[in-house]
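Researcher: Please translate sequence to structure tokens.
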Amino acid sequence: MTSEDLSATHVPASTSLANRYGGQKHAMTRKTKRIIVLVALIVGIAFAAWVATTSATAPVTFKDIGYSTVDGTQAEVDYQVTKSPGATAKCAIKAMDSKFAVVGWKVVEIGPNQPEQSADGGRTTVQRTILRTESPAVSGVVDNCWIVDSGK
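Model: Translation complete:
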């Protein structure tokens, strides 16, 4: 075989590479890029609006204020609860040890608020709960709060 015979049966490198790895990629047009950015922006704004309206209409919210350890068998947890003044809520309070294990747990009921109890028309009240603990606690927090169905 001569070198001419080899070149006649040899496939050009560009075609061989295209068959192996696929053809050249075409860049997105400017219009396509703008549409993608616009859609992402609209989705982001819609998500932010949904988060804002969902959290604004939450029936009950809570905020941890502090905790103290009375002794090896008791801890006190201070927190705020914000809810409709006429609603009754329940909150789960927990005390934890240094390894974040729960060493004390209590569910407390927070009845209807008196409007004179707070500056926001009775929506927010400050609570203190004393928990019995199995071992010394190093932390105390509100785990969750929920509105109790008034029909029960």
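Researcher: Any highlights?
Model: The first strand starts at residue 60 and ends at 71.
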